[in-house]
Fatty acyl-CoA reductase (Exocentrus adspersus), 511 residues
Amino acid sequence: MAATGLRSFYSGKNLFVTGASGFLGICLLEKILRTIPDHGDIYLLLRPKRGKDISERLEEIKKNQIFEVVLKEKSVEQVFSKVKAVAGDVGQDDLGLSLNDRKLLTDNVNVIFHLAATLDFGDTLKTTVDINLLGTRRIIDLAKQCSHLDALVHTSSAYVNSWRLQADEEIYPCKRDPEELIATVNKLTPEELEKETSRILSDHPNTYTITKHLAELEVQKVEQLFPCTIVRPSMIVGSWKEPVPGWTISKNGPQGFFMGASKGVIRRLPVGKHLIYDYIPVDIVVNMLLAAGFYVAVTKPKKVAVYHCTSSTRNPFRWATVEDNINDYLHKYPLVSAVWYPHLKLLPSVTWYKISAFFVHFFPAIILDLVTRVSGGRPILMKLHRNVNTSLDRLEKFIFTEWKFTAMQTMNLQDWLKDTDKTDYTLDIGTLVWKDYFVDLTLGSRVYLSKDPVRTLKAAKSKEKILLTVHLIWQAALFLLVWYLFACLIGTTMSSSIYVLPVIFILYMLL
């Protein structure tokens, strides 16, 4: 068991965080500010974006709703007094740091949390090599120069080993040599690189997993120089408990589908409902980052410590668990901004989904986009559904493959923590009830993604009654239209072809 507490360790420590404006990074920042008030300076690597400099971006971070809890007790100035923005970019040489900022970091930083990465499975090898692989190498070069470094915490992904159906908490060799890959990326034209990508990937499904895999090997190379750890989350979803249940700013994974389903736009979801899906709440990942950094800093292992922050072998989730409750969740927390009556149905394949989507997604989208255009708005639904279809082609392997990630070292780390830290920074998901969790996630998607506050719930439920009436009229009209067309096709009256109605109904239910 730890001789000291996690809070005590991080008190007075100066921290450097990359990816701080992202889903995981901003949640990590909130947890530190709320639970470790005696922390040292927190340096956030930020790059100018969309015409905003780093000071403006820091102000944007401060306004995020995630800080509502900690700001109930202290002012913005008090909470963020030691949070400092540093201009830079992991995709640039030397992290794009000025000489003064680099010296500031190397003279003062005690713990580095490297979270920055490009997560887009459709990104080119050029982009992912530059950010995920070389970005990690640049962070390691900085770490080597830090005079008082206690730990380097690298955020990876459980899916770096997606070529294995079961993976342990160890670093596996990669078939690709990083130097050869970097040379290839720099030598080939974008067109040539695109043609060569599938060959280069080999048994990796996309550019993200191979570059994150190679990034782990970069960390392993320096395991003798300073304490370092790799945390591998699976699919990160909204918070379980902290700072509030269901908090999220990420549209990836189930919260994104719930957002679309609540609007009535997404009505079908392709899943293997009896497969295990490895989802992990963001607050558990944050606890894991802090606990892993604490552990390696105190114990100083000579090998990089690898942890799976996953659920598949500890508290597995299957969509069959919530299938019968999904629409109850949606109707419990409807949206004022809904455009159609919400109803989400699970389908067993991407092909089946695309057939169904033609009728329940694209056909209504054409009509709603037309109405939007006539009323002077900007039609977006057809574009949205085309993007969803494109994304599903890239994600099909991840949707219909079951992985199991062992987490023995993660459980050992939980046991190693002091009793108070086992509660305040828990890594244990054994008591998580998925049905209850998805109720909170539905509300979180409503409040934090759709920006629909709880106070609008009464108005939303009134609107939903109107949408239900419109939906039923629409369904009746479609049934009559199909019935009429069938009667015309076979040259008879509608009353004489009434036998076709059960067939139409069965076909509709299959969609």
